[in-house]
Write a structure and sequence with these properties.
GO terms for molecular function: S-adenosylmethionine-dependent methyltransferase activity. The protein has seven helices and seven strands. The longest helix is centred in the C-terminal third of the chain and has 26 residues.
Length: 212
């Protein structure tokens, strides 16, 4: 499998999984790799994507899971048109999907979080500043080296089905604007820049008072 920038950060995202979490929503799940990781941890995972083609590949990949663990529940839908249950999910993830929809979609995701729940966004931003270009330059040689290594290992494996490429769109918001809008819509959230042209947003919904 070719090197995937989103897959590279799976472990980082899982560090923010709340203790005792039982339910998760994966927005823009694609071929389901992160959703399957969540399900493998025992979570009831609702995985949503607007592309029927990539969901077909996700369901096919489910059949290759050999450990007998749980599997995601996939839904072919546009998350902006979906009526999500209020206060239901302990964990909501968006991996390189938020820039495909209006940023204020995070308002609906915030409402769908259970008290104490966590929203994590592995997002893409538009490069516009010298800082952006500097991070891009730093990432380029690392990215090239990893792709060469992964490509070499792939050539040694038997050929399989051609990978399905989810729909892509260039990000339209630079990081400063993302920070401003996130601060207004997700008070108390934290955002940090990552390598490979990504940022990490983490928002934790206030838990109910003890005894409530």
């Amino acid at each position: 499998m070719p090197f995937d920038h989103n897959d590279h950060y799976h472990r980082l995202l899982l560090r923010h999984l709340p203790r005792g979490c039982r339910t998760a929503l994966d927005v823009g799940c694609g071929t389901g790799r992160f959703a399957r990781r969540l399900a493998g941890l025992g979570l009831d995972v609702h995985a949503v994507d607007p592309s029927a083609e990539v969901l077909a590949r996700a369901r096919a990949a489910d059949g290759e899971v050999a450990d007998g663990g749980g599997l995601p529940r996939y839904e072919h839908a546009d998350i902006t048109q979906l009526e999500l249950p209020d206060g239901h999910y302990g964990f909501i993830s968006c991996l390189a999907s938020l820039h495909h929809m209006p940023f204020d979609t995070v308002t609906a995701l915030r409402k769908a979080l259970a008290p104490g729940g966590v929203l994590v966004v592995l997002g893409c931003y538009q490069e516009k500043s010298p800082a952006d270009w500097g991070w891009g330059l730093a990432a380029a040689p690392v990215n090239a080296g990893i792709r060469l290594a992964v490509g070499a290992s792939e050539r040694l494996r038997p050929s399989g089905t051609a990978p399905v490429k989810p729909p892509v769109a260039p990000p339209g918001m630079p990081l400063p604007r993302i920070r401003r809008e996130a601060a207004a819509l997700l008070p108390g959230c934290r955002i940090r820049r990552l390598l490979f042209w990504r940022y990490l947003l983490v928002f934790r919904k206030e838990a109910l008072p003890t005894g409530a």
